[in-house]
Design goal:
The structure is a single chain. The protein is of the alpha/beta class and 538 residues long. It has two domains: 32-335, Glycosidases (TIM Barrel, Alpha-Beta Barrel); 383-531, Jelly Rolls (Sandwich), CATH 2.60.120.260. The protein is built from twelve helices and 21 strands. It has helices at residues 7-18, 61-69, 95-110, 124-127, 129-146, 172-186, 197-200, 226-229, 250-270, 288-302, 332-335, 374-377, and strands spanning 38-41, 74-77, 114-118, 155-158, 192-195, 216-222, 275-279, 309-311, 321-322, 327-328, 383-384, 394-396, 400-406, 415-421, 431-435, 445-457, 464-472, 479-487, 492-499, 509-514, 520-531. The protein has an eight-stranded parallel beta sheet. Strands 11, 13, 14, 16, 19 and 21 form a six-stranded antiparallel beta sheet that branches. Helix 2 links the parallel strand 1 (38-41) and strand 2. Helix 5 runs parallel beside helix 6. The protein is elongated and about 85 Å long.
């Protein structure tokens, strides 16, 4: 039996889960977000006055190969253009500088990374936005012409980093209009990114308005609490946060949760899913273990929204990679959800034992997702491990009857399978196996989420029972994450999450839905299995 669930309905489901304030009929207007994934900034490289100043090093091809091997999906390349261009028409960019930027972008794309190319520190625009707009637009015309033939799916433009001072909401669209027009003349559908006023902090999302263009995307930066992330930072003078601020209090966690709500509110208001273009904590006075816990907290808090997150930065000021030792700093990759061989997280007393690093991490090996699912997947906080458009599962049990159920009222696509257990026995005596589309890898976090309801049941409270486990579908059927769920009479979304304690080959990898312990009739609808996420819902 095969039931195909609507991709349109699936997209609505994913975003309704991520943004509960969205009405069901609003989800059709949701913009497919940029597939930023896990991202890192090439900080203090091309955006200082000269490459290699501010204590940085020239970018090499090997840097991008190392970044890709670590599991990052995207690099953000900040570039200073204003001091490499003429301030009067035709605003010519230094050809040697343009050639260097092209070289760096080419290296990143060759490493199979997505690239966000921006204008960073275009200093005059912050003091005189409208007066500088023609110059800024003239520079972007040259950038856009240079990269017009590059693949749109992997190279994106960010017109200006962190509007601030006189560059604010009152003039944002008008100031960036020449740059946008210049880009659209040669790149009519390439992704273009806007950040809001006040350094593009998360609060800027509340008032950020974008041009009427389906290929414009929103970004924000996250350095809260500022007193922690910027302690001792000389560039914040005269109000430099003093050293000694710690992170992780109840107030910090509450503020972080409130900031996640601001992202949900923006999605509900605009139908656009933003991404976090920068986040991090300055390493002068913040130890690496403290930075690890900060990144972990931010990643876990925002990951269920499905937004991409770009860390600041690769190898200089807030570094993830130590150039002197030639090693990644311990724990930081793990904190943002990437695989970190040999690293063992020490549980914190304030962290529930069931929690795990969030974030997608690397793609599962040997995985081929069904056609048409790529856009749906990027709305989710992890990588798909099953085909959520299909209810074509292996069912078993001599006293089990199944049938397809179709009704528009069923969440997640209007389809479900009804399982009638006519005689109780052991839990495993009747059930269904959800096939997986990639290997299960030891040490990775998996989560299954599914819509279900109990039609009838002979237990006293009338609830259905479904025992869920990730397992190998071969003798002796080893598995992990065993959990028995009580299923209510109304449609609800249920989840089970676990860390794999073994490797299981794709041909044997399933999620077992065992129902044989109770005489019952239950219905199961759209089912999603992810790797690299702790939850599909908030």
């Amino acid at each position: 039996m095969k039931t195909i669930l609507s991709l349109t309905a699936m997209s609505a489901l994913a975003l309704a889960i991520a943004s509960p304030s969205l009405a069901q009929n609003d989800t059709d207007r949701i913009q497919t977000p940029l597939p930023v994934g896990t991202c890192i900034n090439m900080g203090n490289s091309l955006e200082p006055e000269q490459e290699g100043s501010w204590g940085g090093k020239d970018i090499s091809k090997e840097d991008f190969e190392r970044i890709r091997a670590a599991g990052f999906d995207t690099v953000r390349i900040p570039v200073r253009w204003y001091n490499k261009s003429l301030s009067d028409a035709p605003y010519t960019v230094d050809p040697d500088w343009m050639a260097r930027v092209v070289e760096v972008v080419d290296w990143a794309l060759e490493a199979e990374l997505n690239v966000i190319l921006n204008s960073h520190h275009f200093e005059p625009i912050y003091e005189d936005p409208l007066g500088t707009a023609p110059w800024h637009g003239g520079v972007w015309k040259q950038i856009a012409d240079q990269f017009a033939d590059y693949p749109e799916e992997t190279l994106w433009f960010e017109l200006e980093n962190e509007p601030h001072d006189n560059f604010d909401d009152s003039n944002l669209l008008e100031t960036l209009a020449p740059a946008l027009a210049a880009v659209r003349a040669s790149n009519p559908t390439r992704a273009v990114i806007y950040g809001g006023e006040e350094w593009s902090g998360v609060n800027s999302l509340a008032t950020l308005e974008l041009p009427d263009d389906p290929n414009i995307y929103a970004t924000f930066h996250y350095y809260d609490p500022f007193a922690f992330t910027h302690q001792g930072a000389s560039w914040t003078a005269p109000n430099i946060p003093p050293p000694g601020r710690k992170f992780g209090s109840d107030a910090d966690r509450a503020a972080l949760a409130a900031d996640v709500e601001k992202v949900r509110a923006y999605i509900a208001r605009t139908g656009k899913v933003p991404f976090m273009g920068e986040t991090g904590a300055y390493d002068l006075h913040v130890s690496t273990p403290e930075r690890v816990e900060y990144h972990r907290a931010v990643t876990e808090a925002f990951a269920p929204t499905g937004i991409g997150i770009c860390m600041w930065a690769y190898a200089n000021t807030y570094p993830f990679f130590d150039r002197e030792s030639g090693q990644w700093l311990e724990g930081l990759r793990d904190a943002v959800g990437l695989e970190e061989p040999g690293y063992e997280r020490v549980p914190q007393t304030a962290t529930p034992a069931a929690s795990a690093p969030a974030g997608r991490g690397k793609k599962p090996q040997g995985r081929k997702i069904p056609a048409g699912l790529a856009d749906f997947e990027i709305q989710l906080p992890g990588w798909l491990l099953n085909d959520p458009t299909s209810l074509e599962w292996q069912t078993y049990g001599p006293y089990l009857r199944t049938k397809a159920v179709m009704d528009e009222s069923i969440p997640g696509g209007g389809a479900a399978t009804q399982f009638e257990v006519r005689q109780p026995g052991e839990s495993w005596s009747a059930g269904a196996n959800v096939p997986l589309i990639a290997d299960i890898e030891e040490g990775r976090r998996l989560v299954i989420g599914f819509w279900a309801r109990a039609v009838n049941s002979e237990v006293p409270d009338g609830s259905g029972q479904i025992a869920v486990r990730f397992q190998a579908n071969s003798d002796p059927y080893p598995g992990f994450g065993d959990q028995t769920l009580k299923i209510g009479s109304e449609w609800q979304f249920y989840e089970v999450s676990a860390v794999a304690d073994r490797n299981i080959r794709r041909k044997d990898a399933i999620v077992a839905m065992q129902m044989g312990s109770v005489k019952q009739t239950v219905e199961i609808g759209q089912t999603i299995v992810l790797v690299g996420a702790t939850s599909i819902t908030f």
